[in-house]
Please model this.
Amino acid sequence: MKHAAIAVCVVGLLFGGIILAQTQTQSVEKELIKLENEWGDAYVKRDPALFEKMVTDDFIGTMPDGTVYTRAEAVEFIKSYKGDVTSMVTDEWKVRVYGDTAVVTARNTYKMVLEGKETAAQERFTDTWIRRDGRWKCVAAHNSTIAQK
Model:
């Protein structure tokens, strides 16, 4: 009887730990999706300060053509962009959390006006986040254009 009670307690602790870990992971997933949406807002609203708060000083991004850009170059792009992003919808989210590191992938569908001409495009992105001092910051980003059929 005593062994059965101990077994029940151990199983209860294991399931309690699993449930707690799932709840914490879901909370992190929601936080990272919120940050990713704010990142998109930074581009739509042309708000480089918002972007700067989300990325590390040594942030590096990779464009669809393979060129890389730094945090400073991204900030300058946000400031000087001549087009208007009129809408951006992000879906197909996948968030994988590995302790204080997370990888976020999703699809962006956006419309913009550039030089008076409206255009639409889709892309997939992969962003790598780390938690520093209790805050999530992006250290690397990669975007790939989805070919239109």
About this structure: The chain has one domain: 2-145.
